[in-house]
Write a structure and sequence with these properties.
single chain; Outer membrane lipoprotein wza fold like; alpha+beta; wza like fold; 365 residues; 7 helices
């Protein structure tokens, strides 16, 4: 169980982009006094008693992520391939891998090549052709890649969904998307992309890449190679808000207006669910790759026993419904939940598929 004793004496806290209404009514209707605000805490100040610890994510960048993928390309729906049957005088045939993963060539009724390498598909096609041709020899070439793609969204010149046609690093992908979005009149990228909250999601997991160190500091130890279906997102630094997640009725981003506190943020998310653990509400602030976490006793805040906690733009407030265990594990779980939620929402917004090879689906700045 997380120790909340040190937080019961303070009342400050940061949060990120997400909430705005419903708990105030609950506080008033319960007959409790309105929570009063305490001083804001500084997550970079080790003397601040509200700070439990600064977290270094345990899923650090692995050495193999910095090496180009060694595995062969595997075919998938939409890929355009060229097939030639040697010795029959026929010109090469262009065909496309269908939505069901099958290709159609000569008399072959439909060969499933989904997930096969180029050489595996060639051998499988020759085997099928032996039913119609004696000792067939086939060449098979990939002409256009569609099935393996990466999502590169956010404050970029051409955010979209791009096919991976060759080993591609994070910088390669950002460059392909036109680079960081620039201000129309100043021609700069200052404050347009929030690099501290930029992230990559791979197979549902957050990869702790430090975008600021890579882009501003030239730290190539952060320049990982992307894999198919990786999701890269660079949010706008101009957006202010707080994210409220977990056991609330309406998990969402809340606009940051005037002063936002833990109470007003949770109220904007329409309050907490009955099973919420109010004494262990977690606030996450700072870079996603090296976040600061604090625990506040929301139960006592609502009852006016301790001051409310002021938040900062881009803080994340997480209301648990189960014991979180160690704060380090809780912090990693919350960051993963946050990036998966944002990725899902941004992916739905982008939608649409790829129109043509080499051109991402432009989703606007």
């Amino acid at each position: 169980m997380i120790n909340t004793h040190s937080f019961a004496r303070t009342a400050s806290g940061p949060v990120a982009p997400l909430l705005t209404i419903g708990l105030v009514a609950a506080v008033l209707s319960s007959g409790c006094s309105t929570p009063h605000r305490g001083p804001a805490f500084n997550p970079s100040d080790p003397k601040d008693p509200t700070i439990v610890q600064s977290l270094s994510m345990t899923n650090a960048i692995r050495p193999e992520w910095l090496q180009p993928p060694a595995d062969e390309y595997r075919l998938g729906p939409g890929d355009r391939i060229e097939i030639e049957l040697i010795g029959f005088g026929d010109p090469p045939t262009d065909t496309v891998v269908g939505p069901d993963g099958r290709i159609y060539f000569h008399l072959v009724p439909g060969l499933n090549v989904w997930g096969m390498t180029q050489s595996e598909a060639c051998r499988a096609l020759e085997k099928e052709l032996t039913r119609y041709v004696r000792h067939p020899r086939v060449t098979l070439s990939v002409r256009q890649v569609v099935s393996q793609r990466v999502w590169v969204l956010g404050r970029l010149q051409r955010p979209g969904i791009y096919p991976i046609q060759r080993p591609t690093t994070l910088i390669d992908a950002i460059t392909q998307a036109g680079g960081l979005y620039t201000a129309r009149f100043t021609g700069t990228t200052e404050e347009l992309a929030d690099l501290q909250h930029s992230f990559i999601v791979r197979e549902g997991e957050f990869l702790p890449v430090n975008f600021k160190a890579l882009i501003h500091g030239g730290d190539l130890s952060q320049n990982i190679y992307l894999r198919p279906d990786d999701f890269v997102f660079l949010p706008s630094a101009l957006s202010t808000g707080v994210y409220v997640l977990g056991a609330v009725f309406d998990p969402r981003a809340v606009s940051f207006k005037d002063q936002v506190t833990v109470s007003s943020a949770i109220a904007a998310a329409r309050g907490t669910l009955p099973e919420a653990r109010l004494r262990e509400v977690v606030i996450v602030r700072g870079s996603l790759s090296n976040p600061h976490c604090a625990v506040v006793n929301f139960h006592d805040i609502v009852r006016g026993r301790i001051p409310d906690v002021p938040l900062q733009p881009r803080d994340i407030v997480y209301v648990p419904e189960k014991p979180l265990g160690t704060l380090r594990n809780a912090g990693q779980f919350i960051v993963n939940t946050f990036v998966r939620t944002v990725a899902a929402n941004e992916g739905i917004r982008a939608g649409g598929g790829v129109d043509r090879i080499g051109v991402g689906v432009n989703v606007g700045p």
